[in-house]
Amino acid sequence: MTDISALEAYAGQLSEAASRSNAASVKQHGYIHGDDQADVDTENGPVPSIAKQARLSREKTSTLEADLADPSQGGGKVWCRHTRVASAVARSVNDRLSDHINLLDKLSPAQRANVESGAGTLDCTDAWDALLMDLKYPGPFVYPVTPKVSLPMGAIYFASEKVIEQRIHIVGHGGGQSGGDYGTTIKFPADCSGLIFKKANTGPSENGSDGSILEGVFVQGGGINAGARTKHGIDMQARIQLRNSTVNGFSGSGVNIVADVANRKNANLWVLDVVKLRGNGVHGLYVQGGDSNAGIATMVDASNNNRCGINDESFLGNTYLSCHTSANGKQGQVHYAGNRYYCKSNTLGGSTTPGTNSAVWGLVGAGAVHPVYPDWVSGGEYYIGFSYRSTGSNARNVFLGCYAEGAQPPAHILKPAVVIGGILGAGPLTPESTALVLSDNRISDFENTNNSSLYTFSIGLKGTNTVLGLFAVGDHSNGLCQQWDPTLGAWVWKHANSTQLSYMTAANTTITAGRPSPIGGGVMGIPRPIVLGSGSGQRMFGKATWTGAVNPPSGVFAQGDTYIFAGASTIGGKVGISCTTGGDAGVTAVFGKWGEIVA
């Protein structure tokens, strides 16, 4: 190629490059400065101008906001599920950006003012239903979330019961102890249940509330005697947790946990933690059924309920830790003729005079009329009502550190339940109670303030040097005690804390047994006669308490009673005597000598 041709070729390349540069410059100008309708052609196809991209973004945002606000378009759905793909979690584009919803967002201005004023007179059902609609997730995913619902301070009124059919975490501003329990109140009318937590297979939606949490609320019923006894404050048909809350004033029980395969409910592993159950028409807490087991109630205060404070009829049992009861059994205890009685029947209390039939009325003890427990009235409405009640024959209920205030009916707790410590360990329990009790160094099958039919195994007994004790009654008058006797230097078994039955000498014993020095340890002593045989064949065998070979001066003897003489033995003498004819000594009894001593 000549120099001229080379220059011409170079000039052509420069011209082509300039042309390309000019075209690119034009496209760049159009991309940056084009209107909101313009597209720029590129090798990969048309690209919208910056202005057009902004317009499309605004339009999409507006559409998305409308969808989020419209429940019919999936607005507010809150759900997620784990997948096997790398993205791990897929979430609906129409879902809310948060799993935390406040009921205030759903209240009308009038409802909000009514709630925040504490009046609680305007029905908030429509707001609640709208909130639940926001929380519904479309289908049974592997890991459905537990959305949190915040309830405002004030009084929220619902004109009808509220059925919970999905997992939910409801949080208010109250507590389960006196003084801090009114922050958030949920009010219901008379003859109305409160919150019903459904099992997955018991509700219309076939969704369940297992795993739900309710905390920080005061659930207020419409009246203790203003409705059916089936209208409960919290009806746990599924396993949920109730925390830092109060349930008050329902015509049924405060918390009702009745679950069994027969009714397709399962509340096993239920939880009550710092909960107050007061002033309800039946029980504070009622637990019953084959699937109401392995739950725990911690710091539950059950007070002023018509029947029992805590009534457990579960199949396998539950645990009660640091619970408290007071003034329960308002329809279960009466005053009559200077005594107080507790009712044992749900049907015969009004037709049976207290003190005439122990199967209907049990004696609490002497007592005057009490403001909570008035005089018995013929034809009155009376029911079984105790501070605590545990009756399941298989229920291994454990009551640990639980307390019961005085004046109310006693606790009625049957084996195989166990009571450890607390005021229940020292009483009162009904005489019919058979639970194992461990308290105040005593292990007993039950306790009773009347000291009747009391059987106790004691580890130690204050002021008596007792290590072990078996007692038939509370005053220990028929007790059998093993004690350390420092004077004898021996372990002694005593009857009634006084009569020495037997002893085992120790290393520093002072007992000489008739010799110059103590006999040392390991010797069994039996100071009183021994009865040999059984029934009519029983005969006494012991050491004679009179001197030498003289027959006993007094006493009643049976034929065959045999004694060894006390004192020195002599060659040619006899070891002892035996009664050959029974009767009074010195009158009709005849004795013969036995055991000649030979050299």
Write structural notes for this entry:
Residues 18-47 are annotated as: Disordered. Among the domains are: 197-328 and 388-454; 333-382, no CATH class; 456-525, no CATH class; 530-596, no CATH class. Residues 72-98 and 446-454 have low confidence and may be disordered. It is elongated. The termini are far apart. Strand 33 (456-461) and strand 34 (466-471) form a beta hairpin. Helices cover 12% and strands 31% of the residues. By secondary structure, it is mainly beta. The strands form seven sheets. The protein has a 23-stranded mixed sheet that branches. It has an eight-stranded parallel sheet with strand order 8-11-14-16-18-20-26-29, with no helix packed on it. A five-stranded mixed sheet has the order 39-40-42-43-45, with no helix packed on it.
Keywords:
single chain, 45 strands, 23-stranded mixed beta sheet, 12% helix, mainly beta, 31% strand, eight-stranded parallel beta sheet, 599 residues
